[in-house]
Amino acid sequence: MHQYLLELASLMAVFSFAIVVPGADTAMVMRQAIVHGRKGAVLTSFGIGTSLMFHVTYTILGLGLIISQSIMLFNVIKWAGAAYLIYLGVQSLRAGRVKIDTAAMEPVQRKEQSALKAFTLGFLANALNPKPVIFFLSIFSAIVSHETPAGVKFGYGLVMASCLIAWFVAVSFFLTTPKMRVGFEKASTWINRASGAVFIGLGLKLAAEKAS
């Protein structure tokens, strides 16, 4: 038991840095909070966390090693992820200023985003990124013993996914406080443009990635 706690602590020490570093997931949650409100951002956060378990699962099953060693599979995932990020970027650039009902503190939208769509946005943004393949394969290989039972490894993944969800839910709540929302409305046009540029930039960067 002591060995497993030490492994988990080591994993979390590394993973905690990966959580707070801004990336496509952060940009996604920020835009959801601005455009679709707290509910949309929280659901997207759960989608991102669920996607992390997807990565952890195939890494434990050994598929991560196959993907990391297969140029074709890596490129299929890479190009799908790059296309998706660029699509999100274009959608953000096309969006105008977000008008917010200051009484309800919710964005005024032409069409309400469904819970499934909000969740799926977060899931796909993370699932279609091949970088977690290398990340989880690397840290699990370096930190977790081959003798550690698969069930325990899944437990590690659940803890990591829960922490990721908690982080983005906290971000969602922070970004949807009344003062923050009023400020976001004033700057929403530029925020949409900035997030659009970030998504496109990340998509192009991902497209240039090479399997190692």
In sequence order, what are the helices and strands, one letter per element? HHHHEEHHHH
> N-to-C terminal Cα separation, in Å?
34 Å
Output the number of helix runs.
Answer: 8
Rounded mean pLDDT is 78
Radius of gyration: 18 Å
| Number of domain units | 1
Helix and strand content put the structural class at mainly alpha
- Specify the overall morphology: globular
Sequence stretches where pLDDT stays below 50 over 5 or more residues: 100-105
List keywords for this structure.
212 residues; 80% helix; single chain; mainly alpha; two-stranded antiparallel sheet; globular
Quick recap:
The protein has eight helices and two strands, in the order H-H-H-H-E-E-H-H-H-H.
Description of the structure:
- The protein is mainly alpha-helical and about 210 residues long.
- The protein has one domain (about 25-205).
- Helix content is about 80%, strand content about 0%.
- The protein has helices at about 1-20, 25-60, 65-70, 70-95, 115-125, 130-145, 150-175, 180-205, and strands at about 100, 105.
- Helix 1 (about 1-20) packs parallel to helix 7 (about 150-175).
- The model is unreliable at about 100-105 (pLDDT under 50).
